[in-house]
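Need tokens for this chain, all 147 residues.
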Amino acid sequence: MLIPARMSEAEEQRWVTVMLDKLAAQENKRVLGDAELSERAARLSELYFDGRARPTSVRWVTNQNTRWGSCTPAEGSIRLSHRLQGMPEYVVDYVLVHELAHLLVPGHGPDFWRLLEAYPRTERARGYLEGVVAADRLPHLSEARGE
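Here are the structure tokens for all 147 residues:
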């Protein structure tokens, strides 16, 4: 942590305490977010798969920039891209349902897609995500104007 040299020792100590508190709060939000994500996955599994899809872990990750989610069926782990945070709930739910379905059917064959038919907003969520991808590919207005 960088601290201006002009700070007194007391100000420095106060600043360090404030910053450590902020870091701890951010970490708590992330952990709580993962716990809430796991609870949400459990509810969706009950609702759409009669509770048969039982992940061992469900968490947000920051290292997925080309995928919305991933699943490792052998481990039972599901990871969702942090890019989904702030998107409509039905979109996040779709990605969760998609990854939960992989716990039951690993590939993307007909049996997998039949499972996803249970989620009523599949097509809408897929359209939303396709729109996000398309928008990301467009040059920003400032770039288009040569700024």
